[in-house]
Amino acid sequence: MPTDTSPPAGRDKAMLRTERLILRPARQADVATLFGFLGDAEAMKFTHVDSTLRDCRRRVMVHEWRRRHDGCAPWVVTAREEDRIVGWGGLYQDPFEPGWGFEVGYYFHPDVWGRGYASELVGAALRLADRKLVLAEVWAMAHPENPGSRRVLEKQGFRQVRYLPDRTRFLFRRPRDTGGD
């Protein structure tokens, strides 16, 4: 599945297009829509849930601030066919829990689960990690009761490293894909 990792002409260089998704930096105006699922305890039962709109705004905007330093942060994910925000995620260093290095994370509205968007997003994030940022490795975490998330990571070349009991998560690692270079 080809991905155009070059920015569209005259647009934000941090925007990417995949076969079915548009990945772009977050704006303040996106936060209320993102909170619709990032603040939903059932939708986020395997990960962090934002308890208030203010908490969500802070998390999203702090990540955006980090984009200038790291060259990456979670993108707002728009389904091209539907022209609506369906997720948030990508490659980042977590400013709220530093020390894990670069990781991928993905959070989607429940009505788009099972469509393969997470795999498409993670693939784009890994191409950024491998080709533009040239990272030696990328990390990810998945809850033991979320086999779909673990499958997404494994399909993208991540291997389980160990279980983290203090986080109730499996830790995954993927070394850089040099693509023969």
UniProtKB/TrEMBL annotation:
Transmembrane segments: none
Pfam families hit by this protein: Acetyltransf_3 (PF13302)
Residue intervals of the N-acetyltransferase domain: 21-177
Any coiled-coil regions, as ranges: none
InterPro entries: Acyl_CoA_acyltransferase, GNAT_dom, N-acetyltransferase
Family matches, as PANTHER family: GNAT FAMILY, PUTATIVE (AFU_ORTHOLOGUE AFUA_3G00765)-RELATED-RELATED (PTHR43792), N-ACETYLTRANSFERASE DOMAIN-CONTAINING PROTEIN (PTHR43792:SF1)
Stated name of the protein: GNAT family N-acetyltransferase
Protein's organism: Hoeflea ulvae
